[in-house]
Amino acid sequence: MIIIKKRKIFIIAILLLLLVGFGEKGAISTEVKKYSSQNSVDSFTDVSKKQWYYEAISEAYSRGLIAGYNPTKFGPNDKITRGQLVTIIYRMAGSPSTIAYSNKFSDVNDSQYYGNAVKWATAKDIIHGYGTDKNKFGPNDPIVRQDFAIILNNYARYKNYNYSTSTSLTSFSDYKKVEGSYSEQALKWAVSLGIMNGKNINNKKYIEPGSNTTRAEAAAMMINYVLVLEETEIGTIHFDKDSYYCEAGKTFDTKITALGTESTPGPTVKSFKTSDTSIATIETHPTIAAFCINCKYVLVTCKKAGEVTLSATSSIGATTTSSLEVTEDIGSISFDHNTYTCHEGETIDADITASPFTSRVNGYSSSNTSVATIEKHPTKAAKCPNCNTVLISCKSPGKSTLSTTSSTGAKNTAVVTVYKDPGTISFSEPSYTCHVGETINAKITALPYTSRVDSFYSDDPSIASIATHPTLQVNCINCRMSQITCNAVGETSVWAESTTGAKSGSTITVLA
User: Fold this and answer.
1) Domain boundary among 195, 230, 265
2) Which of 42, 60, 125, 475 lies 20 to 30 A from 322 at CA?
3) pTM here?
4) DSSP 3-state assignment of 389?
């Protein structure tokens, strides 16, 4: 049996103590896999060997992943809430600092046990708003199975695990409830990896997307997740874009990148193909060499109008796909950059150009307006009849795909990545001068007030070194008093970094 790392065991053991859920009469879950449990759970009077969940709970218990309410009660049919699941995920991630994050939901109290977990998971794009009201999360509401799958899928994406595999759900009698729904991709992922296997009701198999998740089901799905992803860790692989467009008779180059994990480093791009070679083909680029061992440049040749799927596989089993639409000669349209980066609250001026000259920019949009929006620039005029100047407004941390179309039907995309505002950090002076053997007291301040001074260092400690002042204290929690020791004639720089990622330096000149 594969042994989970001790650190993971400890983290998950704490987390799964929170599991609570609600059972449904007459339904038998098939989430359980065949495990090899070692420690007995027979002390739990409500966990019978005849129940479907016996092996799953036994495995989780034997690994130290879960415990009962007390020595005799496990509560397999109790409900687990949305706040409890997010807390589990947060602690699985190691309970990282949330000092740089803020609460975006009106029904989430920072002082509650799930406060930090919700702030962190929101910032990492693991959770979003609840139902039609995106300002609420519903932390005390029972979590339904489809939302359970979505949060696990988002967490797998955050961890750079396999999050993109898929499979058909037609074997489930209620699969039409899932078709076209917001949870379709996540449920297909969970089923394809065996994390979620559905329920047997009256000898029929159901995915039950809207049913509450029970404590037993949650235990089974969490341990399935651990066995499939935490222990196998096949990493991820991705194309540069989720979708491509080209004209028949033309070619374009793109990059495929494979990412490993802590236990499976150094994967390579193993193979790639198109779903219909009569529409488009893909091959190793004949002239552009990859600059990294885990990536590969490929040449895509567009042959005739139609739609195909590009797929790629890494050397450790991760897979990915990207769509390609081949059109007749309709000209082209493009942003002035393929990617944009900014901090929340900032704006970017961008140009979109359609070709040929007789074509026009027909429209543009953002895939996630909560992250970034795009609009006609309110003050800057377009530079030419076939181009537009637009304003990109960066709203909140995350990624959004910007799309544009021309009057002749050409399409293109660009990706904008919005980062959390890191604030600032600064020394009390931009430069200091001293003589060999002297010391300087320098105050370092991080902003905003919720930020902290994280670390500081010298480019050349042999000229001047920096350390926390041994005696002087400061009267603010977001600042620190440091002592610079002048060691030898010369010039160097000292640097400071904040807990939110801000960085600043000061020049030190040491005289004889």
Assistant:
1) 230
2) 125
3) 0.43
4) strand
